[in-house]
Structures are given as structure tokens and as C-alpha cells.
Amino acid sequence: MQTPRHVAIIMDGNGRWAEQRKRPRLIGHRAGARAVRDTIEFCIDHGVEALTLFAFSSENWARPQDEVSGLMRLFLSVLDREVDELARRGVRIRFIGEAQAFSPDIRKRMQTAEALTAGNSSLTLVIAANYGGRQDIAAAARALALDARDGRIDPDTIDEAMFATRVALADLPAVDLCIRTGGDLRISNFLLWQLAYAELWFTPTLWPDVDAATLQAAFDDFSRRQRRFGLTGAQVSQQQA
Ligand code: IPE
Ligand code: IPE
Ligand code: MG
Asked: At which positions is Mg(2+) bound (predicted)?
């Protein structure tokens, strides 16, 4: 049975979960934090090497100010509450996205979490915070352009493999499975480059309701898929024989 080495999740539906209960949207985000804990547990138990979670997109700043500030407070309290336990569980924590946009106290906790867990190896947990796929690709293009301008690389040598080393997650296994909860069938500017050959799995389940059974259904579906990478089904069967 094939298990995904790297799982990426668009954790969507917190707001609707709360609205269905006639509660403020922030209650949904808080309930979503519990689902994050269960998901990390599930991934450790299943031997997943890397888990990338979309926590806050570069577009989410445009939400009502009280929701944004509530999310920032939640981010802070989750970092305070969970990092020590994750460190004990052997989780290596990383962040992708433009961290400069966050307040100094959040940035400090992000740096501490990364430093504290840098030597861990049970699961690499990547939190995408103020992340956007287009921003990621633009930053890679900018870095290569600067290298070319300053004579460190010859622009003629820029190819897919070189570009791939400059986008986020370059040092991790390719994303095998991307899950989106909440019922919408879109990528919402998540990992655009990195999802090129990922298997996509969508569920109407709202993120706070996600549990081990939901994740198991995604993993079971993944294990039944034939990943062809442009080849024919017969070629792939032959390779696997
Ligand atoms: C996802 O849930 C969490 C963030 C974007 C921070 P939403 O807040 O987008 O929930 P819905 O889509 O409004 O239900
Ligand atoms: C995607 O959800 C971002 C996160 C889960 C952090 P959104 O709720 O922002 O996506 P759209 O706006 O419905 O596309
Ligand atoms: Mg949403």
C-alpha cells in the first residue's frame, strides 16, 4: 500500500463551521487548531515524512480586521501552547511565506520553534503563513535574476531543476497528496509549482470536523491511484513489476 511521503493540506471551512453554529468565525478557527493537532498525530503514526499546512494566505489579510487580528492572536497562543509538545514528539517545525509581515512577537516565536526543533526527524511540519504560490515563484525568479546579474550563474543554464531549488519546500520530497477540505474545488494560490504532479483530494467536510477517518479515506484513495507522470498505464505497470 503506497503512503504519501509528503502531504499538503488546504484547511478550509473554519468560518462556515462556526456560522452553522451561529458563533463568531474565530470559534471556527479555534476548533480548526484542534484538527491540526489530530492531523499531525495521524501523519506521525502513518510514517509521513512531511506535512505542509496552509494556515494563512497572502490574500487573507484582506479579511475583516477583527478576523485577521483574532487569527494573529490564535497563531501566537497556538505557538506558545503546542511547540514544546511537538518538539518532544520529534517534529521539525518550519515556516514558509513572507514572515516580515507578522508582528515581532510572532516572528520571534516562529524562529524559536524552528531553532528548537531543527534537529528533529519524525515529521517535518511546514506551516504556510502569509504564503502565496505566485509570490513564491516570483521570489525564485528574483533570486535567479540577482544571481545572473551578479555573475554567479549563467542565465542560459536556468532550467526546471535549477528553478526548483529556489522555490519553497525544495529540500523535501515532492508533494504526493494535496487535500482540500470545505468543499471548494480550487487551489487558492497554494503551492503552484510544487503541486504539478500531486494527487488532489477534495472533501466537503469542514476543517474543524476532520478526524482520523477523514484522513484515512484520503490515504486509502491515494493508495488506489495510478501515478503515471505522463507515461501510459502499461508502462507504469511494467515499471512496478
Ligand atoms: C480557512 O477557513 C482558514 C483560513 C483561511 C485562515 P476559512 O476561514 O476560509 O473558512 P470558510 O471558507 O470561510 O468557511
Ligand atoms: C485558502 O482558503 C487559504 C487557507 C486555507 C489558509 P481561503 O478560504 O482563503 O480560499 P478562497 O478564498 O475560498 O479561495
Ligand atoms: Mg475559506
From this structure: 12, 199
pLDDT at 58: 96
Please give the full DSSP string across 167-180, using - where no structure is assigned: STTTTSPPP-EEEE
Q: For 1-18, how does the pLDDT look when each residue is reduced to its tens digit (9 = 90+)?
A: 799 999 999 999 999 999
Strands 6-10 and 199-202: unpaired
Q: How far apart are CA 27 and CA 13, in angstroms?
A: 12
Question: Using one digit for the tens of pLDDT, what is the confidence trace for 124-165?
Answer: 999 999 999 999 999 999 999 999 999 999 999 999 999 999
Q: Which of 12, 130, 136, 176 is catalytic?
A: 12
Give the start-to-end residue ranges of the domains of the chain.
6-240
Instruction: Please identify every residue whose CB atom is under 5 Å from ligand 3, which is an ion.
Output: 12
Candidates 38, 45, 60, 220; catalytic one? 60
CATH superfamily of 6-240: Decaprenyl diphosphate synthase-like (3.40.1180.10)
Q: Is 12 a catalytic residue?
A: yes
Q: How far is the CA of 60 from the centre of ligand 1 (A)?
A: 9
